[in-house]
Amino acid sequence: MFKVLDVNDMLSIQVHPTKVEAEKGFKRENELGIPLNASHRNYKDDNHKPEIMVALSEFWLLHGFLTEDKLRNVLSSVPEFTDLIPIFEKEGYLGLYRTVMEQTEEETNNTLKPLVDRILPLYKKGELSKSDPAYWAAKAIDTGDDSVIDKGIYSIYFFNIVKVEKGEAVFQDAGIPHAYLEGQNMELMANSDNVLRGGLTPKHVDVPELLKHVTFEATVPNILKGEAQSDGLERIYKSPAPDFELSQIKLTNQDVYKSNSHSAQILIVLEGEVELFEEEGASINLSKGQSALILANCSYIIAAKSSAILFKATTPEA
């Protein structure tokens, strides 16, 4: 799946299963007779869902757990979290996350209400920076009913808040909890709809199933810059996923990009206008917002009619 995202209201916290676990979960829910369109169904198919995104603007996201030192600092500096310090010291990331995710609605509200009352006025007065978890926690609360506080607020404080600049990329592998907070990006992912949610959503959150799949260890965000190709026109954002490969093609007026497709490819024009030629000479014009499918084993040329930016989705070469 290949799409352009414009994130204004933050998206839900998500974790995706491995291929093996997706196959098991899909089979299990089929055997239980859970309809594919049931709201409480976790596995809509038997595939994994690795994802990669390239920022089209300044982009903010949650991505994996903070390192132990940073998380200890959060727990000790936020008054509402100090009671969680012994749990983290004894039971680590799993114990900490399980404790807050298994709270009753009343327990969550009682714990987080003083935090909400403290940060929301600061947010409304514009006194919080986007690097501060309080900013995103308050933004999440400000868009809903603060009498029912989402457990995802804990995750905003426990996870890395990552700022990605235009042209940089982040890969989301199985088990890494993440959420897109704000900005525009190009996103490419495996063909799956398997999402285990962890908050910031009114949709179904299956805590026991979620806990089976989260990677309970520190994540140091890896910001991908992409690898410039020898033609000087293409930059490939490589990832461990065997399912896909994403690249950016940047052309100035009269530049010509040449390629041979080893597999099917999708081109999306983000800026400008180009002419796409197939090897036998037929051509089509593509402008901003238009896309084209390139079949496998084709030679083609992209000729810029103005300065242009395209993104290409394909699979890694063997």
From TrEMBL:
A GO cellular component entry from the record: cytosol
Cofactors: Zn(2+)
Superkingdom, taxonomy of origin: Bacteria
Molecular function (Gene Ontology), one example: zinc ion binding
Keyword annotations: Isomerase, Metal-binding, Zinc
The keyword Transcription regulation belongs to this UniProt entry's keyword annotation: no
Reaction(s) catalysed by this chain's protein: D-mannose 6-phosphate = D-fructose 6-phosphate
UniProt EC number: 5.3.1.8
Enzyme class: isomerase
Domain Phosphomannose isomerase type I catalytic positions: 1-65
Gene Ontology process terms (BP): carbohydrate metabolic process; GDP-mannose biosynthetic process
PANTHER family for this protein: MANNOSE-6-PHOSPHATE ISOMERASE (PTHR10309)
Family note: Belongs to the mannose-6-phosphate isomerase type 1 family.
NCBIfam families xrefs: manA
Name this protein carries in UniProt: mannose-6-phosphate isomerase
Organism of derivation: Jejuia pallidilutea
